[in-house]
Amino acid sequence: MSEKSYLEALNIAITEEMQRDEGVMIFGEDVGGVKGGVFGVTKGLAEKFGDQRVFNSPLGESEIAGLAVGLGVMGHHAIAEFQFADYILPAVNQIMSEATKMRYKSGGDWSAPIVMRTPYGGGVRGGFYHSQSTEKIFAGQPGLRIVTPSTVYDAKGLLKSAIRSEDPVLFYEHKKLYRSIKDDIPDDDYTVPLDKANVVKNGDDVTVIAYGMMLQFALKAAEELKNEFSVEVVDLRSLYPIDKSTVLEAVRKTGKVLLITEDTKEGSVMNNVSAIIAEEALFDLDAPIKILAGPDSPSMPYAKDLEDAFLVNQEQVTQSIRELAEF
Amino acid sequence: MSELIIKMPPLGESVTEATVSQWMVKPGDKVKKYDPILEAISDKVVTEIPSSDDGVVTELLVAENDVVPIGTDILKMNTDSSESETKEEPKKQAASSILTASNTAAARYSPAVLKIAGEKGIDLSLVSGTGKGGRITRKDVLNYQPESTVSQPAEVVSKIETTSQQPLESQPQVSQVQSSNSNDVIVKAGPVRKMIAKNMLKSVQEIPQAWTMIEVDVTGLVKLRNSLKNDFKEQNGFGLSYFPFFVKAVSAALKNNPKLNSSWQNDEIIQHKDINISIAVATEDALFVPVIKHVDRLSITGIASEVSRLANGVRNNTLKGSDSEGGTITVNNTGSFGSIESMGIINYPQAAILQVESIRKELSVLDDDSFGIRNKVNLCLTLDHRILDGLAAGKFLNEVKVNLEAIDQNTNIY
Cβ contact (<8 Å) for B113 and A288? Predict the structure, then answer.
């Protein structure tokens, strides 16, 4: 065991997988060379594995995704990086039409066993090109997995599973968590399943389901309220498809559900979770489902006070849990 | 300092005054919006009056046992937040912004609560809620112990405390007094008893009451009910007595005999469209007549469920004012304590009261002149002779009889 940050855990995962499998390569804007990515996730990899396996791409997301699909078809577990989740839109066609449907449209002959990594989320004063949550654009497309680690342990284990997956995985990394959370994680090789939500904390008054920075808020709130209420905290992990059985089991334990996403609410992943609960667990509900999400506003603003107003904050999370517990 | 005066709220149609039965707060007490502050009695219904705001009670403006008109100022409170604020309050206020709490919250059950109560056969009227606005939460039902002894002692203690602070005239007090016979015990009538006395007297003084009785063969009904009762209790969580069948038979007969479903008011006969049947529920020392609304729209099971709910409501003092309003005729289950014949007093201002006596076995001459053992019951009808004559009453009773005698194994109770 040793203490690592979320970012270091990701770097370790890529390093170990590149050592394990020579077919793994990684590329994207500023990924190669001494820079090693704008956040430094790929720092040191070019020195270790050379420019053939770790390299920079042009500023063209469609091309980054297309290259990954092609490498995937050739049998490489390629890792593509989109520098910010906000930049992913030019690559939508390659992701949705090519990567996602490769196995389906070739009748199982070909597949795209690739990982597309991208940092998302606000709270870093990135303004609207560097703060958005774009997962809802892809959530709901069969053939594509969307996962995100919300703890240091998962950052390593989940990325390893994504790299080893035989089908495409869209891998969202919360940029605020890169350096703000640290934890002791095992030094040896371990993986975390791509399709399982994780009950991080057991409780029987209120169930909170969240991911990314919001999960950290939920855990902190549960700790703050521990003398008054017992809170079940579930890390959604897989944003698509949703792990129905874990979600429903956690919901049935308390009958009171708080769903949190920093994305805007309509069409968000949490609306999908809410629909599943409403469809399958109505008779286990003891309170209306509560969703905390961003406001109906085009994007995360830049000014500090406006960004604060946009983001779901710690106080709102704690308060909402309390309201549900007292309901 | 902002002062708020709480008035005696309207307690139902045609209720003009109420008796202050028992104060539940005293000056200096902090109360929250919807907390009960006063138990008031009107027209046989005991109602808890909720506070209309957060604050600190400064003065009680009426005394226990006072009879006051609706709208009378009853309590003064200071609603200054600086004084009334408690530690939890800001949170509670914020809470209501999202999860709207209302004074009806106590009566609204979540799907989870209904499901668990159904599975465990728990009567929710017996469960006390710890959620917002007294709402019964899932955990309340999960943790509910039938005949829980936990909550009751607390209530008793609080009652004793109140009594010791301020002797209550409203509670029946037993005291030895000087009288011609020193063995006599004088019991002072409580407000409920007084209300019953007043209504009974009004009924016999104003209504010329006539009386008639018929005998009904309910052998089919007895067979049907006996064949169903065990499964029914298991499936529905409450028992199936004979009474709902009688209520149903009366309701069906009223459809063709609307005169019975009426009242005399100021030289006018008002025929009621709704069939709302008052049923008599006795407690140790009082009699209540809660109402099953729109009986004609209910199945026998539906009626049984309402009877069970209302009877429990009376016993646990959880009836709402509306549960006792709007009755258009009364059906009284006198048979339950063994009576075979009785003259009811009309539940003012209705036109009739039907007493269902106890079912007994009898050796009878059957249609083919042979003998047989049959189940028989007497139905006794007291009627307002201003509205009804013997003919109308007889027609109605005969229809009730036909309805009851038609019941057999094929009768659907759902």
Answer: no
